[in-house]
Each structure stands twice: as structure tokens, then as C-alpha cells.
Amino acid sequence: MTEAFTWRRRLIADAYREACGLELAALKPGNVHRDADGHGMTVDDFLRSAEASAGPLTEPGLALGERIYRAVSATRAAVTCNTNLGILLLCAPLIQAALEPTECGGLRRRLDAVLRTADRTDTDWLFRAIRLAAPGGLGVAHEHDVFGAALATPLEVMAAAAHRDQIARQYADGFGDLFERALPLLVGFETRWLDPAWAAAGLYLDFLARYPDSHVARKLGLDQAVAVARRAAPLAAALAEAARPQVCTEALRALDRDLKTAGINPGTSADLTVACLLIRALEPLYRLAVVAPNLPVKPSTLMCNKVTLKGSKQVVQMFGPAQRGVAMAVAACVEDGTIPAAEADDLFICVGVFVHWQAEDEAKIQDFNYQATKEAIKRAVAGEPKAAEVLQKKGSMAHPYAAHL
Questions:
Q1: Nearest to 338, CA basis, from 350, 351, 329
Q2: What average pLDDT does the chain have?
Q3: Which of helix, strand or coil describes residue 138?
Q4: Of 19, 40, 101, 219, which is the most buried if we count CB atoms within 10 A?
Q5: Domain boundaries, the chain
Q6: How many CB atoms lie within 10 A of CB 222?
Q7: Count of alpha carbons within 13 Å of 283, Cβ hemisphere only?
Q8: Are 58 and 100 spatial neighbours (Cβ–Cβ below 8 Å)?
Q9: Residue 67, exposed/middle/buried by CB under 10 A (0-12, 13-18, 19+)?
Q10: What CATH number has the domain spanning 287-393?
């Protein structure tokens, strides 16, 4: 295992733990959160579940089904109840996609490959995982029953259940709802409110209002799930429109009390929230600089935008001319020997990219990023600047956006 892969695995595991923790920090009516336990479960149960499952979820060399089973098994050894089956079903393919060393492209493209290549052996492991977790309301299915033989691929099994189960629908649709609606909504909440926990709460409430929660429907019936969605809808709309989300705190707490008193736990809405938070954390890891489509530069180079990209223009500038400039600079450093070619496949570079919001000249964007990246690599390889130089110049050199010296 290369040092780069070890680093990536650790980063992915941390992203998973943070997504689980952030979901628990959100005020989620009816579900366990930091302000109120519920349904015989505590915040600590979920934190221990996340910690226990992070290892097997990111274990190298596992196929999708076995990855899910091992994560469920580790969770059951850590806690005495089913806390995270839905989370694992959603997060395992995302993590598998993020770990896969042979795939190129962004996270969604990698995910598509994971889902398409999963076979009946994965389904057998998947059925074993579901039986071990023993989720509430699990009955007997007329088709692809988890207590029977695995006669189809995970995608085929999930497609057959997509009409009644939101997690199955994500598999069948390639997680389209999470990437196309939920993720932009989450980013919008983060940008407006500058509070990740409230952004997660807004996302959860959107899930709760838009769909009859599958966990509620499975345990209490579809009518009850529809009633919960209808009650949540006006609160979700009010929260989404609020300049300050805190104005909805008491209404959220009231709904939280009512749902928990009635024994209603919208667990699937919470599972989807974790999955979207994980996508939010993982997607930037796969903004790899490419020389051309499907030709990522070596060493693998991650581009991180220093400010939030707003609008299609900035996105195109970032992943068009800026990306080309960064990639060509890295390639030039290999070509001229700054980076030894023999080491290029085992190194990793992270580049922070800033494109000014008023930038118009794409040629300058590309050229400036080429020059800056190449200079930064050469200085880094040379060990510059030295600490003594920094101390000598820190009081005399000006930063272009500093408030004062």
C-alpha cells in the first residue's frame, strides 16, 4: 500500500466520522441529535457506531457487499442495537468509489462504476448484513427476500425495491437525488447561514418533507409516513427561507417532542443526510488536475478552491483554464526533473487555487496558475523558504489582501 493511498484512506475515514458527527449536531425532529436522545438510542451510540464502522468501511481490497457486512458486524460488536444500517448502505458505495485506485474522474463517475460492477456475491454479503442488523419493520419480500438466496445483482435488487424504499431508490438512480438536489441545497444553506449544523438540519428537514420516510413507513405504515411529511413541509419551507435559521428553533423542538412521544423515528431522512454530508466532504478530494479528459497528471494533484465557487462561470474558470495551468505546471516539473519521474506515481500534490471573482481573461487565469504552481513546486522541492527567511521578511513584505502590516 502506497503512502498516498494510506493518506487517502485516513482522509476518507475522517470524512465519514465527521459526516456522522455533524448529522448528530443538527436539530433533527424525531431523530437522535445532540440536544435530545430518543427511541432507546443515544448520541453516544451513534458516535461509537461511526468509530467502529470507519475501519471496515475503508478497508482496502474489499468488494462492496463484504464492506457493508463487515461494517455492520463491527457496529453490532460496539452497540446493542441497529443504529446505522441505512447509513452504511448509502456510505459504503461512496467510500468504495473514493478508495478505488484504478478509476479516473469525479466521485459520481467512480460511484457509477462501483454500482455497475457489483455482482451476486455482493448481494449475498448484503443480505447477510441486513439479517445481522435486523432493522425494525423488516418483513418478507415477495421478490429478492433477504432471507433467501441472492439471485440478482445489488442494482437489480435495489431497482425492484425503489418504489417503496428511498435508499434503494438512490442505488437505482445512481444517487442522483443526492448529487443533483440535496448537495446544491446543502451548499446553499452553508453559504447563507455559515453554520454547518444548521445546514445539515435544513437538509434533513427537506428530506423529511419531500418523501414519506421509508423507516417510518416500514414500521408504522405509509399513511403515517405521509402524515409526517405533510406536517414537516411548512416548517421545511420556513426554515429554507429564513435569513437566520435559529428563528425556527422552537418549532423544530416542538416537532421533535411530538414525533418522539409518538414513537416516530424518521431514520431514513437522517441516513440520507449523512450520505449527502459525506458526498460534500469527499467530492473535493476528486478535483484532480487533468492534462486532458481522462488523463490525470502525475503526481496526482488535488485542486482545492480557496473560496466557494458561485455560478457556472467560476466553476468553468476553475476546472477549465486554472486546472489546465496547474496540470501542465506539474507535468513540466516532472519533465525538467524537479520532480523525479521515478517517484511521480507515488507522490501526491495539493494545490490551493484562487480565481478572483472579477476575473475575465481565461488566458491569464491559465498562465498565472501555471507560473504560480511551477514556482511553488520548485521552491517546495528546494525547501524554500527557510524559517530564517520567513522571520527576516515577515514584517516588511505586504500581503495583497491584508488589513495592515
A1: 329
A2: 90
A3: coil
A4: 19
A5: 3-283, 287-393
A6: 13
A7: 13
A8: no
A9: buried
A10: 3.30.230.60
Residue 398 gets which letter from DSSP? P
Q: Read off the pLDDT of each residue in 116-145 and give the average, rounded to a whole number.
A: 86
Give tens-digit pLDDT for 196-237: 999 999 999 999 999 999 999 999 999 999 999 999 999 999
- How is residue 216 written as a grid cell? 417510518
Q: 13-27, 109-123, 139-153, 234-248: lowest mean pLDDT where?
A: 139-153
Which residues, including other chains, have CB under 8 Å from residue 158's CB and lie 6 or more apart? 167, 168, 169, 171, 172
What DSSP line would sit under 190-209, residue for residue?
Answer: HHHH--HHHHHHHHHHHHHH
Phi, psi of 139 (to 5 degrees): -115, -155
What are 52-92's pLDDT values in tens digits?
999 999 999 999 999 999 999 999 999 988 899 999 999 99
The fold of the 3-283 domain, in CATH, is Triphosphoribosyl-dephospho-CoA protein (1.10.4200)
The CB-side HSE value for 110 (13 A sphere, CA atoms) comes to 23
Say if CB 140 and CB 147 are below 8 A apart.
Answer: yes
Residue 174 has pLDDT above 60, yes or no: yes
Write down how long the chain is: 405
Cα–Cα distance, 87 to 175 (Å, whole number): 13
